[in-house]
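User: Is it possible to get a 3D structure for a protein together with its bound compound? The compound here is flavin mononucleotide. I've pasted both below.
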Amino acid sequence: MRILLAPMEGVVDYPMRQILNAVSSSDRRCTNLKGIDACVTEFIRVNDHAVTNKVFYRSCPELLKAHTYPVRVQLLGSNPTALANSARTAAQLGAPAIDLNFGCPAKTVNKSRGGACLLDETPLIYEIVSAVRAAVPEDIPVTVKIRLGYEQRDSYLENALAIEKAGASELVVHARSKSDGYQPPAYWRYIGEIKQIIKIPVIANGEIWTVDDYFKCREQSSCDDVMLGRGLLAQPDLAIAIKAKLANIPYTPLGWSDIAVLVHQLLIDTSDLYPSKYTGNRVKQWLHYLQRHYPQAISLFHDIKRCKDRAIIAQRIKQDIGVKAP
Ligand SMILES: Cc1cc2nc3c(=O)[nH]c(=O)nc-3n(C[C@H](O)[C@H](O)[C@H](O)COP(=O)(O)O)c2cc1C
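Assistant: Yes, that's possible. Here is the predicted structure of the complex:
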């Protein structure tokens, strides 16, 4: 059974992937379990020209640095040739897999014929997946991420069949239409229908916030494998908690002071990566997700929400870690 960390543009960047993977592989809880099996980059937009090495290295610094987890490089676009050429470059740079995004609901992306709007163009999806499959070496998987449809939940079976026929290695299904946005519920049972008609592995995605949600999703979708996005941000050890439950291993979830250590780490890592005017923004964003599981995140957010000074933010976070601020 595998758990993938979902791609999230503007949220799950290199520092966040590192932190969530470190939690996921940490043996502090003595479970011997690896929570996250693979990650996906934020989407990389491909217009009419192939993406340059520089863009790939910026979105996926893991291509340059030693790391312990596989990161699929995600491409988004509608030009089969440009996507194929970009995929070839990513593979040459060392990407362990190429992922294609047919699920992004953003207006600007859909207007330029990318993301979820292609769900209404099954022949083009087929052409893109075939072209990308042909462009990268056979041992590099080409994976695909879709929603159930664009306006309606109506094109998922047709698209799944086309994606399999085009040679994709596996399919991630976000169990909503583009019009459903990110609002609950997720329609997991539709994924079960897909599973019945294709043979490639299917991974269920959407609205898994707790261990119980995992089991409900598994029952309705018949998928053991899942991709977790916001749920892992709200509870960074959710993947381990699910695997521990499956293995019948007792598991004590991370407490707030453990989480505060990670929040502090994100502050340091993102301050080094982004311009100083954005200092603290990623931390505040993460606290928004963490609030769902950890009420302490609310008061931390309240205390730092207007602050842009790294030292002051760090000092406040350290109060929650239980370390005396210098
Ligand atoms: C802020 C945000 C950014 C996202 N960016 C991407 C992206 O770059 N590529 C993609 O395929 N999906 C993207 N998604 C969708 C997620 O990967 C996932 O399918 C969705 O959040 C549902 O899963 P969840 O309920 O576990 O979060 C994004 C979602 C959010 C909320």
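The longest helix spans residues 256-273. The CA atoms of residues 85 and 217 lie 36 Å apart.
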